[in-house]
Write a structure and sequence with these properties.
The structure is a homotetramer.
Chain A lengths: L2 H4 L17 H16 L2 E3 L4 H4 L11 E3 L1 H14 L10 E4 L15 E7 L4 E7 L3 E4 L4 E7 L2 E6 L3 E4 L5 E5 L5 E7 L1 H7 L4 E3 L14 H6 L4 E3 L13 E2 L1 H16 L10 E6 L13 E7 L8 E3 L3 E7 L2 E5 L2 E5 L4 E4 L5 E5 L3 E7 L1 H6 L5 E3 L5
Antiparallel strand pairs in A: 2-21, 3-4, 4-11, 5-10, 5-12, 6-9, 6-11, 7-8, 7-10, 9-14, 15-16, 16-23, 17-24, 18-21, 18-23, 19-20, 19-22
Chain lengths: ~375, ~375, ~375, ~375
């Protein structure tokens, strides 16, 4: 599909100015001018406008799929060869979008990595401006300690480490564990807004409770402690447990079966992880959601401003990105650049975790989407 | 305590203007003037200011306690003598504050009533601008049907019927059931903002599910359905179940035992019922909270702008209202007028439900409180 | 018009329950029950519902018009007979709505009074929770000193004294001056939220500048001082000057002449006084607006939830309140109770000042209006 | 100053992990692993963390000053050599930060350019997602037409063209005119959020009024038209006129002379251009302010997260950027990268226009600043 489909009658690309061929004299004068521009640290708009201000978003980031079964063995191998500790800080291996010139960025704004922690290992405490979360596609046994609160990590859990909270991880078992880290590292790097500080070598609390203190205080439907009534920038819930996510999705589909409004579209249940003190996103720069498609369901093709990363949690299906269809299964990750046309087809019941830079795009009022009527 | 304690050095009452005694001629002229004022529908400020604009709030509403064991039998007797149905609408019996001149108002802004529904009875559907909730101190067997969604009522549950939602109640058992209704009827009457409309004679859905559709869609910690992402004026959660309230309070006290910040003050756990789409109060005119005091705990005396109603849910203790101490136990209700000095003493573990007009007071920026350092 | 016009097919009043005539025995039992209710400070809903929860708002306040040419001489006479000073505080004479039982209230929420200050007189400083403004229909020579900032009062000016700001007035000339005070006294009295404190006998700054310090800091289009960047509850602009109000209204009509969208309806220009730190109303409880109708313009009949007070500033016309037409001219005041059907007819160019409790109604989400298609 | 001054006792740079020298076998295995990472589009964190997540912001953008007297002649020369019209769209020449690798970006988020329009020339209409403003350091005679509303451009004026508004410029005189364009082009390019659409070749309204329709409707202190009561993303005021900016700054300094709080610090007056419908910034991505320093005033050195661009409007002084002092005068521009230590010294009365990405930084809650107590 071309941009002319989006703006009928509009040119797809910037038009070339119809300027008469310069005389040699004129060409020389122009060459001098441009050289003077360069010396004065100036660049004209008129030669750059097509790249700078395209008719529709034309990201350098490309759609891409990473298979879990190639990703995980490499993380395992890193576990054998690379120690984890102060300086390197984390045994995390980032998805590097092939279009982004060798940077370890999944999209221009989002970092997505597999982090691997061997049995009995500890990733030392530190804090940084960057907002982070963990999502666990399989395994357990690690506690992430956030501001001194040990938070168990288990399959299906979504765990928060908002900016400037000290945090470390320790594996309380003899088995390795791997999970997905999501952060706004590229955005913070781009904006030059990042600070970083070291904490302790070992986690500050090595207890291994089933439930974190954060959850004991905050993780109830619609209840707020009187000791914490303000609006907080980040969600105070450290862990969004799979049992609730699963139940919410299951109930949406059951309600749909009963003819009640509940799903986002036919056969498509979805929840957003939210900050109970505001109803908004869990952190200012990252939105996180969970989707469940019934077997046989396809979503309508959609283009959206902003970029996102998906991970298949369970089931099998296909993702279609700008016309290219790829089969995906448990653990596979893929990125959807801005304005990329995407849709999903569920072969089995199909569960997907999803995070994006939508809060940023919406706060700046750049949000825009385009849903096609047909499946072209 | 006098207002001079609040504003040291300030007069407690308006001063009397030191005006020379009028001559008979002057007195007559003044009398004529006031008569002319009356004829012209005018009233001077200077003769009324002490009543109109007192130095501190001087409510007509008085502190008062209603005993459940005298309240309940009267409701039961009403169940024998008074039918429930269209026109009368509800078998609800309101707390009438002795200071409010025979109006059925617990406080100037709040209505609190015991509602009684006999076995197999139905209270017909209607809707109104007034915001309402139910709180269940004992019993079960009634379903309140809110916008067609049947919501089971059970001990400890807090249930919402925000303004302009059709609702009725039906008792699916042979046993009567009673509960507390809280509404903003006095406020709506005062502001002349109320509309009322009849619905069906029978409830629109007579099913008796354990869990309402609202809860299935909304009652998860921090999860929002993608089909409902806007900010709503009222909480979409129809029922705040006792199991969560109880767990939240219990965990706060356990966290306190562990030396963690969690309670509102030593031995005093408390939660606020909140709207998950905003983090704010469940409805614009009513705040609802639940408190648990450890046995032996006393709260510090406090004066607050705005009025509230409390009901003892479980346990025994005392309430001290403007210096008068009253022993209270399960089911007893009491009102705290604006700026009344109140405190609680817990004999046993002491659970109390509490609602107030605080959202209104805060939205108008009239909120103000005064905590005394000592227990005078 | 009846409520059935608003809800077609709905009963205009609550229906009378069809209960069989009680036997003498039943009647006696009921009488006993009601007596017991009374002794226990209880009142049943079913006997009160029609008054408590009417089908549409049925205010006690009535539409009423006060003529300036009868109001002003009475104020003048009060100037001769009644001193102004500490205790009485202000020589203010309130509009007493004939429906409100002898209270000095224009509407249930709003106070409107004419205040009269003789030559060289001072109204001493005080402060109170009540929010206040002044509007000047004629005259000049008085400075109102708000938190130590002297603010000149001149014809057409709208001047703010938000709650808890010390303020006094002093007349720097030998001529008397009168103006309109608007406050939320009735609301604050009803809610029991009011505090009052005396200040100095004389105003704290007797300077008589043309422009207040507040205006010098704040009264520019779209400019905020970097020394005051927060959101404030009340507007920091002490005086909204007539020259700007007049220019804004004139330009709206000129833009309308040019075919541009600008007026609120054909021939009807209007501005709202706003808080530049939020864009919202000047104070949390009071909205203030200014309207200008071209000669010959009539507004469409409208019903609105909430009450308001109008004063004719210039020109002649009619106000139609629940079907009663009254001719009004410069200085005349009238009140529009909640849900009263109102419209205006302009004989000449017709300027009106208008204030209401709309911010309160909107913050509680009770706002609702009904515009009729025809001019019945 | 080093980062250790900011976090005493903290390392200034990431520490190097103390890992034993790998054996040749280990080194080979590691090399294989990294090669496999590359093939799988993966990059490890531990080798990149120092660059990705520095201890404090370490922008690529550098502090830089552009002199108006070298900038303007180049623009003039472009006026002789380069036509303005469809395709190139604008004769705008951008400040290219020497640290940003040849991109036409003043900072990572901000575009700043001099735009030059010859006598009788027209820059054709178009619209784009990018938010834009104009600031006029000298000259007049051009009207910028925003959504059909012709807006005169004169010295000292700050003019808005928020995203997706059609706009063109036409010079109604025989003299050329130049001004500064500020946009969020780099941000929109980075985020892939930009759309662009052509409009008409000539401006849609060639009238040349002194005052735009936008100003006639909106540019009054604290007054809002009833025909436009919503909150708008962008300010509806098309032009912030110099006469008001100048008066506001002058009054701040006069109030300071009178001992009143008004300036942001001693001798330093400043205003922020704001959106009257919210009190917030004029556009979601750009903050604009105007500063006036008394002769002889120096500001305290400050570091702030986020980047900005300044232009001297009048007077002479110095800017100190990360320890380098540069004399600047009328028209000179300079950029302050994130966390750069900056201060100003005023030789004469010193007026500066200033714009930044602060609204973005604040909306994401990355804002942070560091004011040094001394002048080190």
């Amino acid at each position: 599909m071309s941009s002319t489909d989006l703006f009928p009658g509009a040119p797809e690309h910037h038009v070339t100015p119809s300027v008469p061929e310069p005389t040699p004299e004129e060409a020389g004068a122009l060459e001098d001018l441009y050289a003077n521009f360069g010396r004065a640290n100036l660049i004209p708009l008129w030669t750059e406008i097509a790249d700078l201000m395209p008719m529709v978003p034309t990201p350098k980031a490309v759609p891409h799929v990473w298979a879990w079964n190639s990703l995980y063995p490499l993380a395992e191998r890193a576990g054998e060869l690379v120690p984890v500790g102060r300086g390197g800080e984390r045994r995390a291996i980032a998805l590097a979008n092939p279009g982004l010139g060798g940077t370890p960025y999944a999209t221009p704004t989002l970092w997505a990595a597999i982090q691997y922690l061997g049995g009995r290992e500890t990733a030392p405490e530190h804090r940084h401006s960057q907002n982070a979360f963990r999502f666990v596609v399989e395994g357990e046994g690690v506690w992430t300690v956030v501001n001194g609160d040990p938070v168990a990590m288990r399959r299906g859990d979504f765990l928060l480490t908002p900016g400037w909270n000290f945090h470390g991880h320790h594996n309380d078992t003899d088995q390795p564990m791997a999970w997905i880290d999501g952060l706004d590292i590229p955005l913070v790097h781009y904006l030059d807004t990042g600070f970083f500080e070291y904490g302790t070598e070992r986690v500050t609390d090595e207890a291994t409770p089933d439930v974190s203190r954060s959850e004991r205080l905050w993780a109830y439907p619609g209840l707020r402690p009187l000791s914490g009534l303000g609006r907080t920038v980040n969600s105070p819930i450290a862990a969004y447990r799979w049992e609730y996510t699963d139940a919410a999705l299951r109930q949406q589909l059951l309600l749909e079966d009963e003819g009640q409004p509940a799903t986002v579209s036919q056969g498509h249940a979805a929840v957003r992880f939210s900050n109970p003190t505001t109803g908004g996103d869990v952190m200012p720069t990252i939105r996180a959601q969970f989707h469940r498609l019934r077997a046989g369901t396809s979503t309508s093709p959609l283009r959206e401003v902003g970029s996102s990363v998906w991970q298949v949690f369970e089931g099998r299906g296909e993702v279609v990105l700008d016309g290219v269809t790829t089969a995906v299964e448990k653990g596979d990750l893929f990125v959807v650049p801005s304005w990329c046309r995407w849709s999903l087809n569920a072969e089995s019941e199909f569960d997907l975790f999803h995070f994006s830079d939508a809060p940023l795009v919406e706060r700046l009022h750049f949000d825009r989407s385009f849903a096609e009527g047909d499946g072209r």
